[in-house]
Specification:
Number of strands: 2
Bound molecules: 4-fluoro-L-phenylalanine
Number of helices: 18
Radius of gyration: 21 Å
Oligomer: single chain
Distance between the termini: 53 Å
Helix content: over 70%
Strand content: under 5%
Strand order of the largest sheet: 1-2
Structural class: mainly alpha
């Protein structure tokens, strides 16, 4: 009998899929994907994105999971166990930890915004406002410092509390309840958006590809978004991989995660773009898109206020399941490598994240004039991780699986020691050995010279 490692990790395959999908689905899908599509001109970008997700994303996802599940360790310990003689591989662990820290710092800013929008919509402050007034409210809020910092702090605290409860009683239990609710709400939002007058233009924008809008930058953005959305290249997948039971099928689990993640991102596009065009707003608004556009949709529907509260609660929940996976990368590392308790790790690391996060929050307000390489602190953290750290980390993960770990070990892990057929193995291995590293390298170089 295979060991089920139940005590260490998730209690079932469904729990694992939902928790990992919960980690993948987040602000990246509902907030970042639509605005990145908007800035890059729509349909053609989406096609490129989907190709990246399945051709590169799934094999890289599988590789990261293999490293986690085979080693049964945190992202740093994994390389100690799998490459005991070559300490240089520990660098991948270090890079993952730093990336998770930086991502969590800027991610928690936007996650905090969702809490503010629950309060704004619940107290009726968004009701009956014109699109211009709604945009102004967003600007007023984010340009401040007190409330954005408070909400960010609350969000970090919420995440830490669930992490302290542990893997099964915290992460698995909560994501299992929250993810299905998110799906139902997203579908309702899409229906409303699609039935608005003028919705057609938004659908054309999303689904009628115009390849002339693709340039070097959009290719970079598409890959960066695919990595970000699947949570690849910062150890989150590796960490959750170490919780997946030995008898679960890693290929189908990865396909589920990627499929569900992409589906939700496209649903978010369908919920948002018809409304953007119907209200005469710009699809290229950038990070403020969801916060400025959706309140107009809610205002146009009966019972819109309840919907708005529901939606922003779910946006927070989607963000929460992702911040949980980010903090877990750091906490499992501290628990296993520094031998701290879960509670101590969660508290100290959340405070460390907040220290960087404060600068990210203030970069929308009092520190908006501070730019590094022409970017605000928030944008710099986003760019640094999505364009450099995650592709480098993902590249190293694939090189480790494709060129370092013995092929028989990789096969052994993917086939559950020969119990599964793993017929896809040849194709997978070819992608991980050649295509994924070359594509990632290409993207990296392009990112550096652009
Ligand atoms: N994949 C998450 C999202 O799309 O919102 C973001 C994320 C979570 C990135 C966890 C990285 C991570 F480790």
């Amino acid at each position: 009998m295979e060991s089920t490692n139940n005590n260490r990790g998730f209690s079932s395959n469904l729990g694992a899929i939902l928790a990992a999908t919960g980690g993948a689905i987040g602000l990246g899908n509902i907030w970042r994907f639509p605005y990145t599509v908007g800035v890059n001109g729509g349909g053609a970008f989406i096609i490129m994105y989907i190709i990246f997700v399945f051709l590169l994303g799934v094999p890289i996802l599988m590789s990261e999971i293999v490293i986690g599940r085979r080693s049964q360790q945190n992202v740093m310990g994994a390389f100690k166990v799998l490459a005991p003689k070559h300490k240089a591989w520990l660098g991948v662990g270090v890079l993952s930890i730093v990336a998770a820290l930086v991502i969590y710092a800027f991610y928690s800013v936007v996650a905090g915004w969702t809490l503010n929008y629950i309060v704004l919509s619940g107290s009726g402050q968004l009701s009956g406002k014109s699109p211009a007034e709604i945009s102004q409210m967003f600007a007023d809020f984010t340009h401040g410092s007190f409330w954005p910092l408070i909400y960010q702090f609350i969000f970090l605290g919420l995440t830490a509390s669930i992490i302290i409860l542990g893997v099964q009683k915290g992460i698995e239990k909560y994501t299992k309840i929250l993810m299905p609710i998110l799906l139902v709400l997203m579908i309702m939002m899409c229906i409303r958006s699609l039935t608005l007058d003028g919705a057609r233009q938004g659908i054309d924008f999303l689904f009628k590809p115009d390849f002339s809008k693709i340039n070097g930058n959009s290719v970079l953005d598409a890959l960066g978004q695919a990595l970000f959305s699947l949570s690849i290249g910062m150890g989150a997948v590796c960490t959750y991989g170490s919780y997946i039971r030995k008898q679960d099928n890693l290929f189908t689990t990865s396909l589920w995660i990627a499929g569900a993640d992409t589906f939700i991102a496209i649903l978010a596009g369908v919920a948002i773009f018809p409304a953007v065009f119907a209200f005469g707003l710009s699809p290229a608004a950038g990070p403020s898109l969801v916060y400025e556009v959706l309140p107009n949709v809610f205002n146009s529907m009966p019972g819109g206020m309840a919907f708005a509260v529901g939606f922003f609660m779910l946006l927070s929940i989607a963000a929460l399941t992702s911040t949980i996976s980010l903090l877990e990368v750091l906490v499992l590392w501290a628990v296993e490598e520094l031998h701290w308790s879960r509670r101590k790790s969660a508290i100290i690391l959340s405070l460390a994240v907040f220290t960087i996060g404060v600068f990210c929050t203030l970069s929308f307000g009092p520190l908006s004039h501070v730019t590094i390489f022409g970017l605000t602190i928030f944008d710099l953290c986003d760019k640094l991780t999505a364009t450099y750290m995650m592709p480098i980390d993902a590249l190293l993960f694939t090189l480790f699986i494709g060129w370092y770990l013995p092929k028989v070990d990789v096969y052994d892990e993917l086939s559950n020691s020969g119990q599964l057929k793993a017929r896809y193995f040849k194709v997978y291995y070819f992608i991980v050995r050649y295509i994924a590293p070359l594509a990632l390298l290409n993207i990296l170089i392009a990112g550096i010279i652009s």
